[in-house]
Amino acid sequence: MNVKIKIFLFTVFAILISACFIISIILLTSIGSNKNTQNIESNSSNIIYKNDSISNEFATLLLQRINKSVDPCDDFYEYACGNWIINNPSPNYTSSWTVYDVVSQNVGKLVEDSINNCNINDASEGLIKAKQFYNTCINVTLTEENKGIVLGKLLHTGRPENDKFNKFLYNNGKWPLIDSSWNLSNINISIESQIGYLKKEFGIDTFIYTYAMGYDIQSNLTILLMTGEMLPLGLGIFSQENYFNDKIMDAYSVLQEKVAYLLARDSNLTLIDGKINKNDLKMMLQVEIDLAKVIQNVYMKPNSNTTDDLYSLITLQQVLPGFAWKDYLSSLLPKTIYDKILDGKKLINLDSLTYILEVKKLLLKYQFKDLQNYMIWRLIKYSLPYMSTEYTQLLADFSAILYGQPNQVTPVNETCLGYVRGNYEMPNLGYAITEGFVKKNFHTNTKDDATILIKDVKESLEYIMLQSEWMDEVTKSNALKKAIFMKTFTAYPDWVMNKTLQNIYYKDLLAPQGVSFVSLNLMLRSWAVVKNFELIDTKTNFLDFHGPPVATDAWYTATTNSFSIPIDAANYGAVGAVAGHEMSHGFDATGHQFDEYGNINDWWTNKSEEMFNEKLICMEKQFSKYCYPNIGCINGKNTVNENVADLAGLKAALKAYEIKKITHHSGKEERLKLIPEYTMDQLFYLNFASFWCGKESKESLKMTLDEDSHSPGKYRVIGTLQNIPEFSRAFNCQIGSKMNPIDKCSIW
């Protein structure tokens, strides 16, 4: 797989140990440090019992999770998490439910409160617009009245609900599957133009994924990445395996057909003979299946040939003359950026010539009608979550088969909160929402405490690296240099609290009242795309947060050598493990290819790399042994980077914690009044494990095993702790027990 993509998705925006343990490592290292605010009970022994409200809350939550009938040395995950699902039943609209989801839901409630109660007179333009987006999204009455009418009108006539919104030109928005007025003779643009137009005007990637990001070779230059590997097909990113599952494809086709009938009704379109053409339906699906095959064949094989080369327009036309590059790029990019490319600037990183060649073959294989059906379906699919109940129920019915979850529609407020909070790829409204969230819920001392803790973990990681046996002195020197240069961002970027800067950022975003959320969604997608593309040929902002602050993730970005922890992780999370995990990515099998400036520049010596790879084999073999009966086994090779990061992260957090204990040692052992049987060291490991408490369906677990670069939560706990001798000492696990195997893997 392409190094850039590994970094950008698997590493950059990895879902991590974050935002979940209500007290976490901060509690463990700070209990006793504020004796003026805590209720401390002491006795004649050398033990101090903490009895303050924070300690008691933590203890209560811990007791609700633990299953004491299990031996912690036999199955620590079941011991730490066995009773969690009993006290935290899964909602009826999801296939998996974890501590991460609970915290995300709780943060969502805080976000909702900050939106509803923000002071409009003191709010920035962005926050006011975000509030309008949210209010429109949760307006169920308006959504139910609109049904599919607004979307149907846009597709059939090309005219948007608001004159200032983007429209379809040349009558090219019609969905031939239900619109008999569509005629190829009325289409006077190329298929390449249509692909580019849908991305720029409506934010829909159909055959090629494009995104402006820092360039690997020269990290301070922002270029346009063009790839197929990250293309989010109708079933999501990295979902190719599902396209070879007959049960899922049958259900997907049913979804497409039922949506088509509803949209035809709401658009007042008369179907020929009153029916959907089955062959058209079949061919539309086959386009998507064939595209999934292309992605898998080009990117998912060990010998996939990807590149970091930059191309000019002229070069692209020379190496791939069969693709209408001018049509595509002129429809895709803002004019100012396209003009630079016309002038000969090398600003495009096409990571695989083979992919475009295969896409072109696919485009030639099918009739324009089939391709049009697929592309418009992709736009419709992005709109379904924000349409009336008839449509969202169809989506829920399909998700029930895809993920093995109940066919219940996700509550509207949760859908809308997730939307305004933004995502890893395009923060969208996330920066605006953060302003209101911080003003109402966030405390400066929390950010300061997290910053100090991150610094401690960073220094511990540096120490661990310098003590490693497999790194030679040259590699250690380079590693230390990279660690020192690494930038950290905690909680939120300062600029989001600057009203003037917020107003500038969101000045071009429209947020009119009285329009449907379907229209607002497509308009926002386009705005975000243009916002991103305008960064092309500018210097990468090393102070950018690289994601929405009001999230429950943390991420490491290789091309800027930076690490970010959003608000949730700083306020609630196991900050030490998060920081250690993410920062260690800068020094793993992919991170070592980027230097302290984020440029591609392998700083490992051949000897160090050889020894590191030998150690990886141990981790690969260990995790490949973990299996679920009748479901599958973990792919140790595909998950090794994340497994190593879990181990390195916990070791770094542990080292920081141990140093903290020494510097704050009071001469007596500290325990919690409500759970006196546990030492602080034991609570450290229980805290680490508790984030992964959860439950998921067989279908969801199968998708995790097939597609995810992370191991399932259960084995992120067991696999990591089996390699930590300090854990076995803390719980007195005998050598040879399941949690204390004789053979261990050690990377750092």
From TrEMBL:
Keywords: Hydrolase, Membrane, Metal-binding, Metalloprotease, Protease, Transmembrane, Transmembrane helix, Zinc. InterPro entries: MetalloPept_cat_dom_sf, Peptidase_M13, Peptidase_M13_C, Peptidase_M13_dom_2, Peptidase_M13_N. The keyword Transmembrane helix applies. Residues 568-747 form the Peptidase M13 C-terminal domain. The keyword Disulfide bond does not apply. Residues 72-493 form the Peptidase M13 N-terminal domain. One of its GO terms (cellular component) is plasma membrane. Coiled coil: none annotated. GO terms for biological process: protein processing. Its cofactor is Zn(2+). GO terms for molecular function: metal ion binding; metalloendopeptidase activity. The chain crosses the membrane at residues 7-28. Belongs to the peptidase M13 family. This is Neprilysin.
